[in-house]
Write a structure and sequence with these properties.
The protein is α+β, with helices and mostly antiparallel strands and 828 residues long. The chain has 27 helices and 36 strands. A 4-stranded parallel beta sheet has the order 2-1-28-29, with helices on one face. It is globular. It starts with 10 loop residues before the first helix and ends with a strand. Bound molecules: ligand ANZ and zinc ion (ZN). The site of zinc ion has 8 residues, from loops.
Length: 828
Amino acid sequence: MDERYIPEQIEAKWQQAWKEAKLFKATEEGGKPKFYGLDFFPYPSGNGLSVGHCRNYIPTDVLCRFMRMNGRNVMHPMGWDAFGLPAENEAIKKNSHPNKTVPAYIANYTRQMNLVGISFDWEREVNSSSPDYYKWTQWFFLLLFKRGLAYRSGAPANWCGSCSTVLANEEVENGNCWRCGNPVEKKNLPQWFFKITDYADRLADDLDTVDWPDGIKMMQRNWIGRSEGVQFTMPIAGSDKSFEVFTTRVDTVFGMSFAVLAPEHPLVAEITTPECLAAVEDYVAEAKRTSEIDRLSTEHERTGVFTGAYAINPVNGQELPLFIADYVLAGYGSGAIMAVPAHDSRDYDFAKQQNLPITVVIRPDGWDGSDFTEAYTEPGTMMNSGEFDGMGSIAAKSAIADWMEAHKVGHRVVNYRLRDWLISRQRYWGAPIPIIHCPKCGAVPVPDDQLPVVLPDVENYKPTGDGRSPLALIPDFVNVSCPLCGGLASRETDTMGGFACSSWYFLRFASPKEDDRPFDPEKVKYWLPVDTYVGGAEHAVMHLLYARFWTKVMYDADLIDFIEPFSNLKNQGMVLAPDPKNPGTMIKMSKSKGNVITPDEVVSKFGADTLRLYELFVAPFDQTIEWRDEGVAGGNRFLGRVWRLVGELRGSFDGKYAKKLTDLDANERALRRKTHQVTAKVADDIQRFSYNTAVAVIMEWVNLIYDMKSKIPGSPALSEAIEYLVLVLSPICPHLCDELWQEIGHTGFTQKQNWPKVDEDAMAAEALTIVLQVNGKLRDNISVPVDTDQQTLEELALAHPTVLRFSEGMTVRKVIVVPGKLVNVVAN
Ligand code: ANZ
Ligand code: ZN
């Protein structure tokens, strides 16, 4: 054994040995409980992995390694989200076909993951762009289609000109494309949608059944945006026309002083009076140019124009001016509102601007009757509301809803912010949508025995730019006969967005080689749901919502027996690195900023185990970290210390220590206490993803072993400590520990060992007698646990009745604590 710790002499060697032994192969053997640890499906990019990605993979790996040592059959698979825009855009930029770039990037990712020692079962690798996989993505599309959950519609879609494709609502961030940042426009193109709105309630309610970060659950609930209210009809005065409004605050209906239609509302053209027409048309044109986000923003000035028409409030018959204003959106509720300026801030601002009346109908407690200076949106007592006056506003809400339902002017409804999931893309690099358009039979599914619809291998896959997919330019692909009538028909040429591929991959891992069905239901029953799912919080809405939706559809189709795919979710923190342009400042690690640190660099300098240790130690798992080379070097020095410690002690290591742990002295007992406490704490910390505290106690423990090795030479407690240390550290630093395991005379791998047993008796703190003195005179003694710290001893002494009695009427001047022995209270 070399005196120095030289990782390159051990790491590649062990990685090879693990591979040959198929150490990480997942099996269903032995009736053991399973553990399924999964990382988010990565898209293999040409940039390769950074140490930022490793903050995802390393912690999951430690947990999986820990679970193997705790009697679980562990499945820890990896695959590639290889289809989709990013891969295609990158291929275009590099002027190389994605068929070529993707495999090269995958090879690089695989190499890097192995370099870091991640324990993947590579026999289960899947690639979403390979026909044996996307055959089943297509099959699931058809499952949705056959269940009435996939449809084609010509609604205006979000169009990104720079990506030359439409985008799902979830892919539009602040009005811009989530991939390229280009502003998104609306374009009328027939598109395929998945009817995720049918599942809105279940997607919101079932969040109660999973163990996920609260923030992510909240974002999903907000995105679904369930809102309960009342929809009622408002007739237009002097005509037979009417429109519907949606309100969540029907208790304020008597306070309505005007009503507003969205500028896009179909009624606008019909009811606008000739005098108002010019202003209304100008306003409608202007609203078209303003994004929804801006229209809703509180910063956006409340504008609008009068239509010349009046609407009737059905509860009191009042005629109220009808406006159009851009703060009312066409796509939400019914695209029209009752405006209550006293109790809604947008309506308040608008009323102030247009000089419209503000009628208070809910009185705050202790209100003096003076004018409101802003909308009052809290509950209160009803007034100016006819028969409902004097009621509490909360009770009035259901009373008025009842009244409306009884008088058939309105009814209770639930609205959702969630829209159907737009799945078609006018791009090449995706799974072709398996539909054939027949002039006679309509949209016909490609028969199962003709799946997959293989993506043609073409030279020119660049977007056409005219809103059609490049596949539309390939006559051999397009022209087919109808599976139903045999007549001339044409194939759908749109492909599916990448989020379809990642909506079921976690099921495929259970039986990745099945070729006559998407998965083996028995295997899925064993392995699923995923026990721990780890990845970045940026997928809070999109991927997680879509995967949950597909899971529920499969449940409804009796394909699986669970309703949520991911029992427990963890989001790692980001990694910041020094800004090369501003020394001393830290920014997000990114290629464009030129501050990416790769695992390759760190491994070649310090080894994989140091990288693993540092990433876990530097901060709590879910916090943003600042990458510091000094910190990495410190981690490396610690592993050197472990190396030398075991090196020094291996000569006296006694494999039969367990039988000799009797008649121990205080030092030996203290060491054993630490050994067992740390073993228990690390087990607990790993399962809670509290890796930084786990590493911290291991470091304390190593210090104590150093301290003890000369005090208790040859002790069985030292042999025990060393053996435990090698096992407890092994999920974190597996290469080092496998090497040390061998050095202390064992064979095989630490992964094949059981997590060391915690001896509760050895762990229990021993009692110690502490003498209590007042002004140097012995007055009493107390019994405390051995590890009681100075602060606690001082507090115990000062509160002790005997001490209080002997220092009565005096002022305490000083407290002297001799740890493990005495406390002397000096008072006069
Ligand atoms: C009258 C009222 C009085 C309202 C009051 C609120 C407070 P959520 O919770 O998001 O569902 N609204 C309805 N349809 C709208 C649309 N298409 N565009 C913009 N705003 C719309 O919000 C529902 C509330 O938002 C509704 O309740 C309506 O204003 C407004 F003191 O009706 B309310
Ligand atoms: Zn046909």
